[in-house]
Amino acid sequence: MEGFAMDTAPYASSAVNEPELSYVGSPGCGRFVQSQAADPIVGVVLAGGQGSRLAPLTMDQAKPAVPFGPQHRIIDFALSNLFNSGLGPIHVLVQHNASSITDHLRLAWQPLMRRGALKTVQPRGRVFKGTADAVRQSIDALGLERGGVVVVFGADHVYRMDVNQMIEFHRAHAADVTVAALPVARTEARAFGVIGCDRDGRIASFLEKPDDPPGMPDEPSKALASMGNYVFNADCLLRALREPAGREEPDFGHDVLPRLLRQGSRVYAYDFASNRVPGTPPYEQLAYWRDVGTVDAYFNANLDTLGAQPVFDLSNPHWPIRMAARSWPPARLVRSSLGNSHVGAGALIRGAAIRDSIIRRAAIVQDGAELEQCVVMDHGHIGKGARLRRTIVDCNAVVPPHARIGFDPEYDARYWTVTPEGITVVGHTACAAATTA
């Protein structure tokens, strides 16, 4: 996808930041750390969303903790981008089903980081009522310094990004706030904040989830969408959060950004398409970014990782997506046919035929089962002779022998969730009834 028309060439490489960062550890397995000369940078990851549109996958876990691909969780993408960019400390703001995130951070992330570099923040006294309210309630824990920079990222998107390039753009434009942005089809833009800006990237208007998104001047069929990732000057953020909110659930898109624009603050859009991550293969889609807030979007993003030249390649040793280092046994494939698929550690596939699918860790697929375009999550169990198509099997869910799922949406909807695009989700608490072959 092409970016919007603005001059970002000076910020296409993070080489300008090299004096501020040093690499610690072996190639591909170490980390960047800020030097003492760098301006203070604080990372904030908004991970408190309930994820109702991802139900039933979010019944017992927070949206950012939902598994993705053969071995990751959704939050790993935001955290990896901040970690690989050498930013820290990182504060993860949690709320709904918080233990599903805190447990993952303890197992997967804290061993990678120095003591105190990764912190979780939960509401004190009252729940977070919006993205801005979450940061406002967490101000004391963030330890912001005057003259510093605050990077506020969402936790429910799939992408790679060198955050240093966005920070460099922010500083070069003397911005108060910078918003990561990319063009999307106008038909999709109703789900995002929509930006109007000049050719230099300075934002003149910001509409949160408008019913009729305005098109871009050069591409009327597209709208410039906010990715929900922000770089704030700490002074600007503190000032904005001290002012009375206009709504009961104060939000950056609904409240803070429009108010800053009215006050004449320097708010800029950063063209995500100009971001260059080392190790990105030439076949990968430029500026790949997916909001996986719905089951359909989540399912499609998982399939984007499949194939010899996937739209989004999970394998990039120069910019790895980190994951839990738990010791799993190797996957086992016994007398099975497997094509164009991922298989996670500890999975057992015995006498099955699997195509265009993701079988996660410790999942079991029994003899005679046939799966096409399916996602089977951790410890999912597919019985003998079952046939599944375009189906998500939740963690610990059991599909009975000889079940047929994904062939009759009307029947599937009696027992499971069926999405607008026809994806069937078998939750771990769903009725085990199913048609048989």
List the helices and strands and how they pair.
Elements: E1 21-24, E2 31-34, E3 41-47, E4 67-68, E5 72-73, H1 75-84, E6 90-94, H2 98-109, E7 118-121, H3 131-137, H4 139-142, E8 149-154, E9 157-159, H5 163-172, E10 177-185, E11 193-197, E12 203-208, E13 222-233, H6 234-242, H7 252-262, E14 267-271, E15 289-291, H8 295-303, E16 332-334, E17 337-339, E18 342-343, E19 348-350, E20 353-355, E21 358-359, E22 364-365, E23 370-376, E24 381-382, E25 387-393, E26 398-399, E27 403-405, H9 409-415, E28 417-418, E29 424-426, E30 435-436
Could you explain the architecture of this structure?
With 437 residues, this protein is an alpha/beta fold. It folds into two domains: 9-295, Spore Coat Polysaccharide Biosynthesis Protein SpsA, Chain A, CATH 3.90.550.10; 327-436, UDP N-Acetylglucosamine Acyltransferase, domain 1 (3 Solenoid), CATH 2.160.10. It has nine helices and 30 strands. It has helices at 75-84, 98-109, 131-137, 139-142, 163-172, 234-242, 252-262, 295-303, 409-415, and strands at 21-24, 31-34, 41-47, 67-68, 72-73, 90-94, 118-121, 149-154, 157-159, 177-185, 193-197, 203-208, 222-233, 267-271, 289-291, 332-334, 337-339, 342-343, 348-350, 353-355, 358-359, 364-365, 370-376, 381-382, 387-393, 398-399, 403-405, 417-418, 424-426, 435-436. Strands 17, 18, 20, 21, 23, 25, 27, 28, 29 and 30 form a ten-stranded mixed sheet that branches. Strands 3, 6, 7, 8, 10, 11, 12, 13 and 14 form a nine-stranded mixed sheet that branches. Helix 2 links the parallel strand 6 (90-94) and strand 7. It is globular, with a radius of gyration of 22 Å. It starts with 20 loop residues before the first strand and ends with a strand. Mean pLDDT is 87; it is low at 7-37 and 431-437.
